[in-house]
Amino acid sequence: MDDLILLSRALIAVGLTLLLALLRLDAERFGTAEYYEATGAGERPRVRRRLAWYGLGFGIAALILTIHPDARTALFLGTGDRLGAVLGGIAFGVLGVLVAAGFASYRYHRIRLPAESSYPGALLNSTATAFIDEVTFRGALFGLLLSGGIDPTLANVAQTVIYALTTRLGAPGRDRYLLGLTLGIGFLGGWLTTVTGGIAASFLGHAVTRFAVFLCTGHIGQTMPRGREVEEIEQRRRPPEGWSVIGSRESSSRDR
Question: Per-domain residue ranges for the chain?
Answer without folding.
Answer: 72-240
